[in-house]
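Worked Example 4.2. Read the sequence first, then its structure tokens.
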Amino acid sequence: MAQKILKEQEDFGNVTNSYLGREMWYSNDFFINSLILNFITDAEDDLVNELKKIYVGVLGNPGLDAEAINMDDEFEGYLIKTHFDIDIQLDLFSHFVSYHLYGMQLSDERARFNLLPEMCEKLLLLMDKEALLKKAILEDVHDDLEVDIKSPRLNIATDLFVAGMSFILGHEIGHHFLKHTESNGRNLVSKFIPTDVTYNQRYLDEFAADDFGFNLLIRGMKKRNDNTLFAPLIVILMLALYDKHPEEASQYHPSLRDRYLNLLSRVSEHNEAIALTLQRIFNDIATWINHTLLGYWKTEWWK
């Protein structure tokens, strides 16, 4: 597998970097590297050079998180680490959501009803991490990529997945660029938290990183795409699947409910009408999840 990845990196680098091979790579993962390249291509001049200092290391152990690593005086770049299965879970969740969004486009009630078994199957797989990882290892978790590439539902899932991963990366890049990881300032990822940092300051850093990731995402939009704007909200909903109390803040992070509402306000600033539509769709999907999982969340935290 390692040799295959290196070969893909070499071939891709030769095509895009005048046969410089892997010299210009920004991640050990092919897909994430392409997303960073997109950021660089779409960035304004003052951001380009800073974005070129990013390196995202994808680790071999499972875990649904990404993290901006504390700045090191001996290294000029910005390091971010993530786990290999975060894209697996987001890909599956994007397909799950795409069935609902595609169903909204169908006038035939029976056709919409026929989508429910696929939605249920993907939701149950998302809730069983062990089964999901086993599927990823023994089979191909990206089976849906083999279907007709002209499929409207698949196009929706692809939009959500690409934009969702871009937002996740943009959030971590934001922690770096907003100086949350500097050793001489507030450091959210270090085990040592300075005593002058209050919980509210940490929360504000998370909101700021979300704002940065959202702005980085929409800056690269070639045209208005409601699915792209929906993707950051979908990331929050995916995280809520593994948190039975999304309305409650932790010691280091604001509640997922507050992060969702903050991002919804950013979408509203971009386009209020779209924000209202996406809020209604989010409510419908979250309600459906809670009903299907027999009251998994004790509150309707999304309302």
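Now turn to a second chain, presented in exactly the same format:
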Amino acid sequence: MNLIWLLLRASRVNVAIAVLTGLISGGCSARLIALINSAVNNQSTDNLLWYFVGLALIVLFASVI
């Protein structure tokens, strides 16, 4: 717990950016798994390629930042 307070005192902006990108990356990863699951089960595959590419790029960029 002391480490969290130390990080917050040192740079609140960096901690906020890390939390935000973690949430975005985690949410997009979960949606990507759900998208793959729906494709495997042959449920509405309209624009599947574009959704996959978009989510994959968001996950990639969020994990790099």
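Notes for the reader: Helices lie at 2-10, 12-40, 48-64. The chain has three helices and no strands.
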